[in-house]
Amino acid sequence: MKRVRQGVVCGVLVCGALQAHAVGRLADVRIVDRDTGATLRHYHHHGEIWVAGTPGARYAIAYYSRAGERVLAVTSVDGVNVLSGETAGWDQGGYVLSPRQRYQVTGWRKSQSVVALFTYADAAAS
User: Fold this and answer.
1) N or C: which end of the chain has fewer CB within 10 A?
2) Number of domains composing the chain
3) Full-prediction pTM beyond 0.90?
4) Which of 92, 95, 100 is nearest to 26 (CA)?
């Protein structure tokens, strides 16, 4: 079994900061509008990266592994791990990406076959 590089990417979106450890060296992370396919613009503020969306719009977190080995993308939205529903942490499970693999996380994983889609909500409803 090949070694998986730990703690590569941790995304936090929607009224929260997109924080990514080693992004740019090991993986590219983009937020994509699922209706238009457009990459959403990000904003830097106090050392964090923020993404603004339109309430009701569907989005995905798009990964591209730049590494020559497998990487682990631990993904969270608003501080919650999208796979487990637990408060996010660097030591949790995530998506394993093969070298040069592209993958889109489209929502909260409820089971192997059920995903609750990511949608933007206004701040009061998030």
Assistant:
1) N
2) 1
3) no
4) 100
